[in-house]
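Replying to the earlier thread about multi-chain prediction with a worked example.

Input:
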Amino acid sequence: MTAWDALRAALESLRANMLRSALTMLGIVIGVAAVIAMVAVGAGARDQVLRQIASLGTNLIMVGQGSIVRSGVKLGAGTASSLTEDDALSVLAEIPSVVVTAPSVRWGLQIVAGNQNWGTVLFGITPDYMDARDWSIAAGRGLSDEDVAQANKVVVLGQTVVRNLFGGGDPIGEPVRLFSTPLTVVGVLAEKGQNTQGQDQDDVIFVPLSMAKRNIPGMAKSNPRFIHTMVVKMRDGSDMTEAQAQIRDLLRQRHRLIPGQDDDFWMRDLSEVSATRDASSRALSFLLAAVAAVSLLVGGIGIMNIMLVSVTERTREIGLRLAIGARRRDILVQFLIESTTLSLIGASIGVALGIGTAVGVAALAGWPTLIQLDSVVLAVAVSGLIGVFFGLYPARRAARLNPIEALRHE
Amino acid sequence: MASDTAKPLIAVDRLTRHYRMGPQIVHALDDVSVTVNRGEFVAVMGPSGSGKSTFMNLLGCLDRPDSGHYRLDGQEVAGFSSDALAAVRNRSIGFVFQSFNLLPRQSALGNVMLPMVYAGVASARRVERALAALDAVGLRERAGHRPTQLSGGQQQRVAIARALVNDPLLLLADEPTGALDTATSLEIIGLFQRLNRRGITIVLVTHEPEVARFAGRVLHFRDGRLIDDLRQDAEVAA
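Result:
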């Protein structure tokens, strides 16, 4: 019996019990569709996150003020005021792979325009910050070196702030107030949307670093050169781990920390964020894969069940085939091909359904989906194996039938 | 044909088959020896439980004896492996059953082609040979019909065509007329006689004396033993 004969016999038998075959396939169909659709959704989400992270810049290192340790009590990030503008200058000057350092201070406050007010986050920055964090200007102008040097009372607003203070109006040139300090709006930032944590990145205002320190109450500290954070931008392709080590050494030296003493600053690069994100989406994918595996397993058991029924129903046929010269192996192969065909047809329908679902989800729910070819190949291959595995027991049972008894079977 | 008939096709020597049923041992076939020459038409008779079915199963290589020898066409098949027996059944023996045993979803042609699937005949040649076999039983024009569209006699003729398609040495028929009315039975027996005249050896199991009288030789079984071996002038059915 050739494989072609066996395949034809299998298709004939499946066609003869169309409804039953279709119902049996359902488990495999759902399992395969689930694998493909879920992997597509997962891959789409991961891709989106990776692109967001890439947009933040993967060659950035954030350095921030650490905590003061007083008698073993750590007072929390930002309580130390050891990080300074001079640290930023020094990092730029002494570490060759550093392209830009952008010092900043950060303060939450109310901004007032006419009879409107809005609670937002102020960043006191230098123009380098805009470059390092990839901000661009939608209207007006950005902050200049001159603004910083002269502590000009100017402000650049994020889109959310503009919306809340001015509605649809043009804010350029309008006066606003921070506490008692009057400022002039000189520019509006281009929209950035949400960051990877879902925070609104457009709910910010940028002012010159020097002006913020001078005019914002509560900002004055013992050290007028202090900063909250600095963004260090590395040359593309730099070794981030190496760069972090260099920055750490330099800052520890500048802050006169003795060996064994904790850092009084924190440091983070964005690849850590991406690794965390990646790990969580991996965990999600694993979970989905487990669900899909259970579905495929159930589908396989369904196939075994129906194949056992089929062997019993066709006992006389098996007896006849044995009588006219089928070897036991021929019978085994015939039923194995039948169960495998069943699961592979199910898998093909599942592939179509899974791709359809992924495309549908993308179109209707607006989730990004990416159909992964390897998930399709894997799902189909696993289905084939399931067909063989769960078909084996019924097929062996068929092949071991005694032809005399099988022919007499009612 | 003289030299051919002198050569035994079936040579059974002290063939024994017993089954264990609980504590008892049933001697389904007990020390049977018989020779059938090429071209003979033999009827096997006996009441149920006489051992005639066991004898047929052994002749058909569906079962193996516990002791004794069975030479088919000079070949000792009693010790063959299951695969080798399958090959013997496929190439040398054609089976005809009381209940036809046609595959209901296949056409007459498909049913007749089935033995060739296991003989490894190229698919291109299968149709041609199956049509020739259907022609031999007078059903060539019904090749496309399914078993349910055929009468009982026609179904049995399709089954006979299936038995003939691999040019077997031996045709084994187990109560082939058991499910047919008298007129149709006669037709089938007539077909057997015509095939026999063309040279094929036929062994036919029946419990009906009216069928046995068309055979040239009748073997009587009782209690697992061959009790009578009678040669007779066969009546001609058609």
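The domain at 39-62+81-219+227-231 of chain B is CATH 3.40.50.300 (Rossmann fold).

Feel free to reuse this layout for your own posts.
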